[in-house]
Amino acid sequence: MMVRGIRGATTVTANEEKEILSETIVLLNEIVRVNDVDPEQICSVFVTMTPDLDATFPARAIREMAGWELVPLMCSIEIPVKGGLERCIRLMVQVNTEKRQNEIHHVYLNEAKRLRPDLAR
Predict the structure, then answer these.
(1) Strands 42-49 and 73-77
(2) CA pseudo-torsion sign 48, 53, 56, 58
(3) Which fold has domain 2-114?
(4) If exposure means fewest CB atoms within 10 Å of the residue's CB, which of 29, 89, 109, 117 is most exposed?
(5) What residues contact 55, with CB distance under 8 A and at least 6 apart?
(6) 72-90 pLDDT, tens per residue?
(7) Which positions are annotated as binding prephenate (predicted)?
(8) Measured between alpha carbons, how far is 108 from 68 in angstroms, rounded to an integer?
(9) pTM score > 0.85 for this model?
């Protein structure tokens, strides 16, 4: 078994608590679904948001999901690069897995598909 990182990103339309929490759950659920991951396999989840999002902590949504209460979570602000994608939430899910690097599926939703069109489905 080895540790692999699974990247994901999404955007919200407004700096509103409900939408930030909802889109965070949608993104994490999609990462888990396409990679067939169980919370017991998760080492940690690193969450960033762009500086224009400050209505809530997105990790709060993850912590409230069944089975995720003990997964270590960390939130941070994304580096504010001029011209960067706005209202963006990013996840780096570190998982114990037997999968090879090329078997990992990264997830980009909403406007975040523009970040990595080569990886967006």
Answers:
(1) parallel
(2) negative
(3) 60s Ribosomal Protein L30; Chain: A; (3.30.1330)
(4) 117
(5) 15, 16, 17, 20
(6) 999 999 999 999 999 999 9
(7) 7, 90, 108
(8) 21
(9) yes
Domain residue limits, the chain: 2-114
**Residue 108, annotated as binding a ligand:** yes
Give the model confidence (pLDDT) of 11-37 as tens digits.
999 999 999 999 999 999 999 999 999
Compute the distance between CA of residue 107 and CA of residue 121 in angstroms, rounded to an integer.
7
Determine if residue 7 is labeled as part of a ligand binding site. yes
pLDDT tens figures, 55-68 = 999 999 999 998 89
Q: Which residue type, as a one-letter code, is found at position 91?
A: L
Question: Rounded to whole angstroms, how far apart are CA atoms 46 and 61?
Answer: 13
Give the residue numbers marked as catalytic.
7, 63, 75, 78, 90, 108, 116
CA 3 to chain centre: 17
Pairwise CA distance, residues 41 & 48, whole Å: 21
Structure tokens, 22: 């909802």
